[in-house]
UniProtKB/TrEMBL annotation:
<dbReference type="GO" id="GO:0008660">
    <property type="term" value="F:1-aminocyclopropane-1-carboxylate deaminase activity"/>
</dbReference>
<dbReference type="InterPro" id="IPR027278">
    <property type="entry name" value="ACCD_DCysDesulf"/>
</dbReference>
<comment type="similarity">
    <text>Belongs to the ACC deaminase/D-cysteine desulfhydrase family.</text>
</comment>
<feature type="active site" description="Nucleophile">
    <location>
        <position position="77"/>
    </location>
</feature>
<dbReference type="InterPro" id="IPR036052">
    <property type="entry name" value="TrpB-like_PALP_sf"/>
</dbReference>
<keyword id="KW-0663">Pyridoxal phosphate</keyword>
<feature type="domain" description="Tryptophan synthase beta chain-like PALP">
    <location>
        <begin position="16"/>
        <end position="297"/>
    </location>
</feature>
<feature type="modified residue" description="N6-(pyridoxal phosphate)lysine">
    <location>
        <position position="50"/>
    </location>
</feature>
<dbReference type="InterPro" id="IPR001926">
    <property type="entry name" value="TrpB-like_PALP"/>
</dbReference>
<dbReference type="GO" id="GO:1901605">
    <property type="term" value="P:alpha-amino acid metabolic process"/>
</dbReference>
<protein>
    <submittedName>
        <fullName>1-aminocyclopropane-1-carboxylate deaminase</fullName>
        <ecNumber>3.5.99.7</ecNumber>
    </submittedName>
</protein>
<dbReference type="Pfam" id="PF00291">
    <property type="entry name" value="PALP"/>
</dbReference>
<keyword id="KW-0378">Hydrolase</keyword>
<dbReference type="GO" id="GO:0019148">
    <property type="term" value="F:D-cysteine desulfhydrase activity"/>
</dbReference>
């Protein structure tokens, strides 16, 4: 394996992920065309941006001789699930550092993670806020030994480079790419991978997520030595905050599934899709705009 190459794998990955046009009378009325990038179909256990974020990190961990991955997340974190799956398929031990106290029985996310061999440990919320400081990381190394550290949500420069490959897979004309934003890595990469005259819009899934613009800029500068001005974040579609929803959002997601046969993940994708439809109906997109919505799984 050459430096920077993703790890060799025999697991079936559906890449490029499918791109499908979605017909909807509400978008027709706004003069907007929507294409859906089905990254959720890349792999059932490593869907969407999770594979894109992990693949170069897995390669680097292997190149550096690591046999253990350690990462952080909440009790419902898709990143925790995906890291556990990656460890199972690519022969890494995995450790998940979970925000808050242990609750038994484990929820479906953490039960799945342990079924894939992940060892769970917990940090109180105050300590968790300092999770990437040397003091906390050194304590984790004393407790667990040598490991390759993946940040919360998996967003680092290697993850950004993986996500930057997504626009190159789009084999249709488009003007805008939309994605949900939790840590900023996916948006940072998509923006970097866009050609001229194209833009990216991120939809924050966090209440009080205004800090995310700074995170996207920081990730781009760390990865490329510069940042790009072809993106922005929408902050009004978080549905009350991470892993929260509202009756309006739930009604939209249920109606969307009934119309199109596509179930929307309520934590990320439903909020992005609701935002796209709302902006379209408000006239935020010029007639004729072609939008690609990334279903990140």
């Amino acid at each position: 394996m050459h430096p920077g190459e993703p790890p060799p794998t025999t697991i079936p990955l559906r890449l490029p992920s499918p791109l499908v046009e979605l017909a909807d009378d509400r978008l027709d009325a706004a003069g907007v065309q929507l294409l859906v990038k089905r990254d959720d179909l890349i792999h059932p256990e490593l869907p969407g941006n999770k594979w894109r974020k992990l693949k170069y990190n897995l390669a680097t961990a292997a190149e550096q001789g690591h046999d253990t991955l350690l990462t952080f997340g909440g009790a419902y974190s898709n990143h925790i699930r995906a890291t556990a799956a990656a460890g199972h398929y690519f022969d890494f031990a995995t450790i998940g550092v979970i925000r808050g106290e242990e609750h038994l029985p484990l929820n479906l996310t953490l039960s799945y993670a342990t079924s894939r061999g992940m060892r769970l440990t917990y940090l109180d919320r105050s300590t968790y806020r300092s999770k990437h400081t040397p003091m906390v990381v050194d304590t984790l190394r004393r407790d667990f030994g040598r490991f390759y550290l993946l940040p919360e949500g998996g967003s680092n420069p290697l993850a950004v480079r993986g996500c930057a490959e997504l626009p190159g897979e789009i084999d249709a004309e488009f003007d805008v790419v939309c994605c949900a934003v939790g840590t900023g890595g996916t948006l940072a990469g998509i923006s970097a991978g866009l050609g001229p005259a194209r833009r990216a819009i991120g939809f924050s899934v966090l209440k009080g997520g205004e800090f995310l613009a700074g995170e996207v800029t920081r990730l781009q500068e760390q990865t490329y030595g510069t940042s790009f001005d072809n993106w922005h974040v929408e902050y009004g579609y978080h549905g009350g905050g991470y892993a929260r929803t509202t009756p309006q959002l739930t009604e939209f997601a249920d109606d969307f599934t009934e119309r199109h046969g596509l179930s929307l993940d309520p934590i990320y994708v439903a909020k992005m899709m609701f935002g796209i439809f709302d902006l379209a109906e408000r006239g935020a997109f010029a007639p004729g705009t072609r939008i690609v919505a990334v279903v990140t799984g």
